[in-house]
Amino acid sequence: MLTPQQLRDYREREGLTLRTVADYAGITAANIGQLERGERQLTKENYQKVIDGLHRAILARQNEAK
């Protein structure tokens, strides 16, 4: 499992905003920000939502570039 800082680093390295990931993850951008800052517990459920959101956002961006 990635740490909150690693999640943030990955999101930023991919050039994704909190809002973009949140839209694909189905949770609020504020919630993701709190998770990344360690202000909120990263449960397995939320972790999976964020990871899925990151992957979906990356795939969507790649499809747009084609």
Automatic annotation (TrEMBL):
Pfam families given in the database record: HTH_3
InterPro entries per the UniProt record, alphabetical: Cro/C1-type_HTH, Lambda_DNA-bd_dom_sf
Listed SUPFAM superfamilies: lambda repressor-like DNA-binding domains
One example GO MF annotation: DNA binding
Domain HTH cro/C1-type: 7-61
Record-given protein name: XRE family transcriptional regulator
Species the sequence originates in: Eubacterium maltosivorans
Lineage: Bacteria, Bacillati, Bacillota, Clostridia, Eubacteriales
